[in-house]
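Email to the structure team, subject: uracil phosphoribosyltransferase model.

Hi all, the expression group asked for a predicted structure before they design truncation constructs. Nothing fancy, just the tokens so they can compare against earlier work. One-line instruction: predict uracil phosphoribosyltransferase, return tokens.
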Amino acid sequence: MACRINFSLRCSSSDTPRFVPTCHPCKNPTLLLPPFKPHSNPIKLSFSSSRWLRRRRMGFVTVNSHMATEEKPVSEDRMLVFVPPHPLIKHWISVLRNEQTPCPIFRNAMAELGRLLIYEASRDWLPTVAGEIQSPMAIASVEFVDPREPVAIVPILRAGLSLAEHASSILPATKTYHLGVSRDEETLLPTVYLNKLPDKFPAGSRVFVVDPMLATGGTIVAALDLLKERGIDNKQMKVISAVAAPPALQKLSEKFPGLHVYTGIIDPTVNEKGFIIPGLGDAGDRSYGT
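Reply from the structure team: attached below.
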């Protein structure tokens, strides 16, 4: 049974699509968002190209599924999902999808994808400090990322390590806190086996939670719950993933209003074993060959 999806797509000045999924619970949820095209039983989306272009220039586009919906500004208290339309992101996703990609290349592709997504996610989010410095030619007004404001990376082991590998090259003065979460293959329930999070994060911390696959949502929800217990608000954390699917996005939307998720692509379904389809397989196994 298909699930009726109504969502808004708003393009910022950086042309990064932002999706706000709202889905009534159903047995087999499906979600049609750019840039994927399901091969069967698609949800039909319709809009005129002239109207699209006219309203695209205004910075807000509403896409309607099945029935017309009111145009409403996206609330800051709703979860937003960002799928940056960068050709390099599409390239590395394609490399990751290929079952013939060997482990070293797969791991490198994951690291490059993580670098791009973290770059996009840190836009307009990092605190800066302004000042003046002496250049070789003259006094220059400058702006640095404020090293006094804590920025943390939380990779979810083990696949999260490869996606977060280049985080320190993007973000100055970061700390990395490892979090190991395994999923029972029968029940699909998460178990925390390694927790290096602090008892309490410093006030004002910004946290990037890195989990390559958002499938059923159990692992990422468990990780974010641990962060909230340690003083991190929904708007103080951003999720970085390679591939996301509707069941995980629906859980995050219900539990963490105001959260921002950055992903390389949104795939339509999750199978009975909890794997994203078409996905890219087990990201941990393919990253490390074990």
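The radius of gyration is 20 Å. Residues 103-121 form the longest helix (19 residues). Ping us if the truncation boundaries need rechecking.
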